[in-house]
Each structure stands twice: as C-alpha cells, then as structure tokens.
Amino acid sequence: MKRSLLQRIFLYFFLLGVCTQVSLAADITLFTGVQNPGKLTINNVVRDMELGGVFGARFSGGQVIGFEQTLAFSPNFLESSRQAFTAQSNLHVGIPTGHVVPYATAGVGLITTWGDSILDLGTKFAFNYGGGVKLRNLAGPLGVRFDVRGYSMPGVFSQTVNFVEGSVGLLFSF
Predict the structure, then answer these.
(1) What does pTM read for this prediction?
(2) Which of 17, 58, 102, 146 has the most CB atoms around its CB within 10 Å?
(3) Which of 102, 104, 73, 70 lies closest to 89, judged by CA?
C-alpha cells in the first residue's frame, strides 16, 4: 500500500515537472559558424582539409531534457569545391537558470556532399556531440545562442573524418 502510494506520488511530481512551461519551452535558432576539419589520408597522401563556413537552423523543444533537429548547409565542406547538407537529430540536456541555459547535446544524422572534387563522399552517416549556452529572452522572444560541436563521419575511405564546428545564432523563444 505505502509503496504504490509513493510510486503514484513520484509519478505525479515527475509528470508535473515534465509538463511545466519551462520544460516544454521551444526555440528556433538561425546560426552561422565555421567548421575546422582534421586531416584525411588517401593513397598514403595526407590531405589538409580547409576551414569552411556553415549556416542553418536548429529547432529545439524542452530545456531540461529535450530534442533538437539541425538542418545546415556548408558551401565549402572540407575543400572549396564541395558543398554539404547536414541533417542531425539530437538529445538535448539543459540546466534552465532563467535567461541563461547551458546545455549538452549528442545525436546522429546524415551529411550529403556534392561538387567538383576527387573526394566524392556522397551521403554518410555521422554523429555529433557538444554543447553551448542559450541566452533566452534578452529582448522579448529574441536571444543569442553559442554552440561548439564535434562531428565524426566513419567510413570515408576506410577512415573517420572528424571536424569541429563553432557557431553563433539568433534565438527565437516561444
């Protein structure tokens, strides 16, 4: 009897916490940033990849535990003659402390590349991990978001391509 009552009370408080406005908060971020890739060895020749730009949007739901979907375009992915489109789905864990929300994130997705290059990658599975800080509601629903992520694409010429992405964005909270 006592155990089932305690379980119901715990479930009630858990659902109450999950269903509060803070945990259901959603936002959209329009971002821009840079991608810094490592090296790639093809036929025993080490190629230095180029620093490239990226821009896109991130759609997030939840502040404590939530989700995030990222869609991005890189006009110079790994080298100047290749473009890429990225679609990633992530778990998002944050610590809501008013206007400032530090967070960590990790997820999986696809990166599709195309362009005039001998490095034809096609569509590759990728995973990412990272974090940042959201500065929410600085001017009404507007805020700023800073983000740093590491990406890994296994299976590129029997290697894993790793790169780091840093971005800043305009955050719209609702």
Answers:
(1) 0.80
(2) 58
(3) 70
